[in-house]
């Protein structure tokens, strides 16, 4: 008999001048918090949450949220939108976790910018992290060609300032390899104001920011990184391997593109659970070195 679908519930928690809208599914013993990337909205994780809750009954409580200044999570007057603060966004994750209640630790899954926020959360609140899984967090300063990538980002800022949002987004979109592959569904688009906030307030900060991964290693945070097979050599995919080398953690080659968890959820789910199992085993064994694993089913 098929298990009934567990409902998705919505709530709001206020933190540092912003109403954070979050969604919860399941009532399991392990909390997973899904942190959105630059598009900012929670809806991209609903398929993953449903799959985890309905196929692993009793194991997971899944939570995600619209990030600060994105979608429903807007600052309250007289507060105004501000430049991206990694520490503040980490505190937003903490506020959501506390609002859910009942958990001292969480599994974090962050994709893209969400992965950077997850790293920062683990830096600031290591005692609150069970495991951290970062999917293609674009820490460009770690790349061998970081100067070239940084120059390209400076160019994009100039394009945004002189030619507008559409031109900058189109050029950035050329790096999102795999989105046009045959048979791949489209991702859920963000609200129209989200890209404007990203380019105005987030991208200029992210160009030069990288969390202190050495501190995560020193604190023995349980970490794994992921890169999508469809992304090929995109800078954010290559960054996942550089992070894993520093952290001496597993890096998985995963199904899908930069948003593969959203549109190839069934293929993504098994390797995601494999990663959690491996992190449990490595922690029990006292850690281990950098390991690459191909989880795409390729020969």
TrEMBL record:
Top-level taxon of the source organism: Eukaryota
Phosphoprotein among keywords: no
Molecular function terms from GO: hydrolase activity
GO cellular component: membrane
Pfam families: Abhydrolase_1 (PF00561)
Domain AB hydrolase-1: 31-161
Keywords assigned: Hydrolase
Name this protein carries in UniProt: Alpha/beta-hydrolase
Phylogenetic classification of the source organism: Eukaryota, Fungi, Dikarya, Ascomycota, Pezizomycotina
